[in-house]
Amino acid sequence: GHIISDAAARIKELTPKGESVYLTLAPPDLWNRRQETGKSVADIFFEHGIVLTKTSNNRLDGWAAVHEWLKVQKDEFGRMRPKLQLFRPCVNLIRCLPEMQYDEKKVNDEATEPHEITHAPDAQRGFCV
Questions:
Q1: Of 16, 86, 111, 117, which has fewest CB within 10 angstroms of its CB?
Q2: By C-alpha distance, which of 104, 101, 102, 106 is closest to 116?
Q3: How far apart are CA 56 and CA 22, in angstroms?
Q4: What is the pLDDT of residues 27-52, one digit of tens each?
Q5: 72: which strand partners?
Q6: What is the four-CA torsion angle of 11, 13, 15, 17, rounded to 10 degrees?
Q7: Backbone φ and ψ of 26, nearest 5°
Q8: In terms of DSSP H, where are the helices of 1-129?
Q9: Which of 39, 45, 42 is nearest to 29 (CA)?
Q10: Among 51, 49, 88, 85, residue whose Cα is nearest residue 69
Q11: Interacting residues of 85 by C-beta distance below 8 A, sequence separation 6+
Q12: What is the pLDDT of residues 52-73, one digit of tens each?
C-alpha cells in the first residue's frame, strides 16, 4: 500500500540500526521505465539509498540458487552455516519451504500441478512461499 519512495523509506526504517544489507534482490520488471516519470522503480529505490540487484524470473535458476544459499559452508568468521538465514518471524516460509515438491518430469524444477503449498488458499494470499 506504499508508493515507491515511501516503500524505500520504510525498508530503510525497518533495517535495524548498525545492520547493513548485503544484497537486495528484485525481479527484472523493476527496471522498466515508468511512463509518468521516465524512471524505473530501481531508479527510485537507488535515489533513496537502496541498490537493487536484478534477478532472473527463471524458476529453475531461482530454485537452484535457493539450494546453494541453504548449503552449509564457512562464513566470513569461519563458522559453518548456510548463506540464507531464516528467523522465527518467517513462520510460513519455515513451514512451507520443506514441503515444496519436485516436478515428476523435470527433476530440477518445483511442481506446478496443484498441491497444498503452491495452490492452497493461503498461498494465494502470500502466506506460503
A1: 16
A2: 101
A3: 18
A4: 999 999 988 889 999 999 999 999 99
A5: 82
A6: 160
A7: -150, 150
A8: 4-14, 41-47, 59-70, 91-96, 116-119, 121-124
A9: 42
A10: 85
A11: none
A12: 999 988 888 888 888 898 999 9
Q: Smallest Cα–Cα separation from 99: which of 84, 89, 87, 111?
A: 111
In one letter, which amino acid is 1?
G
CA-wise closest residue to 55 among 70, 65, 46: 65
100 vs 129: CA distance, rounded Å:
9
pTM: 0.62
**DSSP conformation class of 16:** P
Q: Are 69 and 81 in contact (CB under 8 A)?
A: no
| Residue matched to cell numbers 522503480 | 41
What gap in Å lies between CA 119 and CA 123, rounded to an integer?
6
> What phi, psi does 31 have (nearest 5°)?
-100, 0
